[in-house]
From TrEMBL:
Key words of the record: Membrane, Transmembrane, Transmembrane helix
Record's keyword annotation contains Transmembrane: yes
Record's protein name: PH domain-containing protein
Source domain of life: Bacteria
InterPro entries: CFP-6_PH
Transmembrane domains' residue ranges: 48-65
């Protein structure tokens, strides 16, 4: 079984989410007194809303930590930022990681490409090892098809 998650983007996202939450909390604590032109004043609810916006922003950033690829002898489960796919090896033609591509992808028999955001070029050798492991599993599946008596 092969499980791959991006490393660099997860670190960047966690740090960014924490910083965003801190900034919005600091802004919330500075929201006191009048609005500047005398027509209104900042209330406790305004401060809570600002912190809430920071929480929602941080959660939005953390969505980018979601990608994962899990593969075994049966097939591949790809979880990207917003969607998930579970594919048997029978529908996969190959595993691609083109030069200059930001991430690897699965080439399907219907000529579609399914991006695997978990295998990012930014992770360098770790991503290459993940692609090689997926290719080994795919080759093992193809070999099992040719060795199966009919």
């Amino acid at each position: 079984m092969v499980t791959v998650r991006p490393r660099r983007i997860r670190l960047v996202c966690w740090v960014s989410a924490a910083l965003l939450l801190v900034v919005f909390s600091l802004v919330a604590t500075s929201l006191t007194g009048g609005t500047g032109n005398g027509y209104g004043t900042f209330q406790r609810g305004d401060q809570i809303a600002m912190i809430g916006l920071g929480v929602f922003g941080a959660l939005g950033i953390l969505l980018f930590t979601r990608p994962r690829v899990v593969a075994d002898a049966k097939g591949v489960r790809v979880r990207n930022v917003l969607g998930s796919h579970e594919l048997p090896w029978e529908v996969i033609r190959g595993v691609r990681f083109d030069r200059g591509a930001p991430w690897a992808s699965l080439e399907l028999h219907d000529d579609d490409l399914l991006p695997m955001i978990a295998l990012q070029a930014a992770d360098k050798e770790r991503a290459v090892e993940g692609v090689r492991a997926l290719r080994r599993l795919h080759q093992a599946h193809l070999a099992s098809l040719t060795n199966t008596p009919r």
